[in-house]
Design goal:
Length: about 250
């Protein structure tokens, strides 16, 4: 699972040094953006939706504390990266928030990021638990059930009725959603066929799983295929033809 991070510091060389260290220590961590002032940093956090924010305290125009208070929510782990600032460090210590003094030491950075990642993983697990509890509480409201789709960057929770179709490629499955979004997961399609049983999905081919509600017609020409509402043509294997016909009757 990729962890998304942003770096906000008014000195470009500090951003570069931190980025180099992060790539060395945490190659799977993705720096999705950097900013050199508080105004741009605020926009970056709102748009990039990072898991971790590395934030300098002392910056012109808008400092790190002012940036934080201007955000509508704080769904990220925070690590301050700062020069000596007696009041700032005292406040950070009082709140038990991790901070790193410049110049950054590798072992301290490693420790702080590992702690942040641990907390991030706990939060993601909590979302999975919340989804499980919702399913248990609303077992008979299938139209509202959400399936967890773990991608490289995040785990998305998608309503089953928003899934148009699934297509496999080796051990990966690509989900095509109702409004055009595409999500790639690292699980084989047969696992999803099993969990989506009872939700109106048809396994019409070795590599295809289709939601019945998006099927426009069954075309008998060219070996037979399903025509979807969005114009997609999904093949039907010879072994699945009779089963597909029965399921569409």
């Amino acid at each position: 699972m990729a962890i998304r991070a942003v770096v906000i510091d008014d000195e470009r060389n500090n951003i570069d040094n931190l980025s180099i260290l992060l790539k060395k220590l945490f190659p799977d961590l993705e720096i999705v953006g950097v900013a050199t002032n508080g105004m741009d940093g605020e926009k970056l956090i709102l748009q990039g939706k990072p898991d971790i924010v590395f934030l300098d305290i002392q910056m012109p125009q808008k400092n790190g504390f002012e940036l934080l208070t201007s955000l509508p929510d704080h769904h990220f782990e925070l690590i301050f990266v700062t020069g000596f600032d007696q009041f700032g460090i005292q406040a950070v210590k009082f709140s038990a928030i991790d901070y790193l003094l410049k110049p950054i030491k590798e072992d301290e950075l490693k420790k702080a990021v590992e702690k942040a990642i641990g907390r991030i993983l706990e939060k993601k697990q909590n979302r999975q638990l919340e989804n499980l509890l919702a399913l248990l509480q609303h077992q008979h409201q299938k139209e509202e059930h959400r399936i967890a789709l773990p991608s490289a960057r995040e785990t998305r929770f998608v309503r089953t009725q928003e899934i148009v179709r699934c297509e496999s490629s080796n051990n990966y499955t690509t989900f095509y959603l109702q409004h055009g979004e595409v999500i790639v997961t690292s699980k084989p399609i047969f696992e999803y066929e099993e969990v989506l049983q009872g939700y109106g999905f048809i396994r019409c081919h070795q590599t295809h799983l289709v939601n019945k509600r998006f099927i426009k017609s069954l075309i008998k020409q060219d070996g037979g295929y399903l025509l979807l509402e969005n114009g997609s043509k999904i093949p039907i294997s010879k072994l699945k033809k009779e089963q597909v016909k029965r399921m569409l009757e």
